[in-house]
Amino acid sequence: MSTVSPERLLLPGSAGQIEVLIESPAAPPRAVALCCHPHPLFGGTMTNKVIHTVARAFVASGAAAIRFNFRGVGASQGVHDGGAGETDDVISLIEWARGRWPSLPLWLGGFSFGAWVALRAQSIVHPDRLVTVAPPVGRWDFSSIEPPQCPWLVIQGTKDELVDAAAVERWVGSLESRSPSRPTLCLLPEADHFFHARLHDVRDAVTKFIDEPSQARSE
Questions:
Q1: pTM recorded for the entire structure
Q2: What does residue 13 show for φ and ψ, rounded to 5 degrees?
Q3: Whether the predicted pLDDT of 124 surpasses 90
Q4: Residues whose CB is less than 8 angstroms from the CB of residue 202 and which lie 6 or more positions away in sequence, other chains included
């Protein structure tokens, strides 16, 4: 995979500057992808290996991938806001990205807490693809999450010690009848929450989902 040098920026958000890292393919990108990291109060940052794996899979599939630190993490200003402010961060960054790449489809991804934030934001920003890894069903309030209207991948380890895989299966199943795009659920046998020794499986699942012709919309 040929890429250009990463771009580091500080962009405005509602709580102050947001630290951003952009990785792009050498060829003109076919999409722009925003990637949301796990919980800030438990060590989650944009350098987390799982969300880094998702971002690199996006880049390998031709997207300019944006990773960032939620408010209060790294050089991002502000303090943790329990999800509401973090959702605002996502919306602000997507508005900026759409200004920079106005003609490109939007892909949105998140891991754990970041998956929950991405799901909160998707009904507002309307991504063309959505990837959620270990969405923390049962740990955060999913009652107000609207069914995604785009092709959507859920990756879940069956031995996740923090997120109940069976609860994730039930939740995804409950949305199937209300979502115009049937969710794609990828269960990784024996994988734990952080996908130790299984990051290649996460990468492969994202790549297959993105590059599957049946997932294409108006791109």
A1: 0.94
A2: -135, 175
A3: yes
A4: 50, 53, 54, 57, 133, 155, 188, 195
